Amino acid sequence: MEQLLLCSDHIPLTTSIYNTFIQKYMPDANGSYVKVYLYLSMCIQSGEKSLSITSLADLMENTEKDIIRALHYWEKKGLMVLQRDDTTDTITAIEICNPDTPDSPQSIPANNRITSQPKQKTLKKEDKVQHPRGTDIPAAAPSPGKQAEETAADSLSSQEITVTEEQILRLSKNEDFSWICLIVENYLKRTLKPAEVQLLTYLFDTLHFSKELLLHLYEYCCSLDKTNVKYVQAVALSWAEQNITTPEQAQRQSTVYNTAHAEIARALALGRPLAKIECEYAKRWQDGWHMDLAVILEACNRTMLAIQKADFKYIDGILNNWHKENVHTLQDIKICDEKHNRKKEEAQRQNAGKSPAKNMPAKKTQFQNFQQRNTSKAEIDELEKKLLTR
Questions:
Q1: Domain limits, the chain
Q2: 0.70 exceeded by the pTM?
C-alpha cells in the first residue's frame, strides 16, 4: 500500500491531546480505536513521514481492515479527515481535527467523501462478508425451506447455524457488538476465528443473547479451559433451550451441570454438555427414581462396555431394571448382582444334572423306523450251521 501523507498546521515537541477528546470521545470509543488515534497524533505532531496502513497494522498487531475501521470511526466522529484516491478510493492522507471544533460532515470536501451507494451483491455459497472485527466469515442467506431442513441436527455441538448478509452489514455498525468481540478476544488471548465470529453473530442477533450473557458464556468456557467453538456453541444452545437469559440463571444451571451432568458426559465421553432430552433422562434417574450419581455412572460404564457407545435408552433400560429391584446405591447393585449370579449358577446346575437321553427324545431315522424280525437263538444257531456246511 502507498505511503500516507500526514497533514497538520503545527508540529510541537511533545504530543498533546485535547482534554475534550479525553472527556467526550475516549470513554465511548473502542480501545483499539483510541490507540490508533493516539499513535497518529504522535506521528503528525512529531513530523513522521514514513507511515502506511500496513506498518500501522503491524505495529498495533491488528489487520489492515481493523486500522481502516478505526479511521472511519474517527472520521464519522468528525475528528479526522480522510483523503482518498479518486480511482481506487484508497486512503492517501489523514488530517486530525481539533476536538473542540470538529469538522461536521458538511465541512469535509466532497471529493473526500464517498458519494456513491455501495452496489448490492448477491452472495454465492463460497463468498465471504467482512465482519466488524476484521474477520472474514462465510455469508449465507438460505431459504426458509433450507433452514427448516437444517434444524434437525445430530447434536447441539454439530447443529448448523446461519447468518445473513443483512445481519453482517447491520452489526458492522453496532458498537456494542464490536465491543463484545474485542472482550472475547481478550478472554481467548487471540484473534477470533471465522466460525467464532459467526457464532457470536448468531447468538447476539438471532437468539438475542445479552452482552452480559455472552461474556459470561466465554468466562464459563474459559474457566473450564474448553474454548473450542463447538463446545461453546453446545453450551450456548443448551442455555437457549432452557430459556436462560441472564448470567445468574446460567450460573445456577452451570452448578447443576458441573455435578451430575458433567460426570455423566465424562463417563460417556461426549465432549459436550448434555442435550435437553439427555438432561430429562438424568432428571428422571435422580429426581424420579432417587438414584445416587454413582449408580447412574455405573450404568453408564456398563453401557460403554456392552455396546461401546453412548446410548441413553440403553442406560435407561439398565436403570429401569434396577429401579424395579429397588436399587438406589452401589451397595444395592452389589446385592442385586449377587442375587442374579446365584440364579444363574442354580440354572446351570439344574441343566448339568439333567440327562440328555431323558430330556431329549431320540431322533428317528429311516433305519430306526424299519420293522425288525423276532428271531430266536435256536433259529440263529441253525442258520450258522447251514452257512458253515457250504
A1: 5-112, 128-141+150-339
A2: no
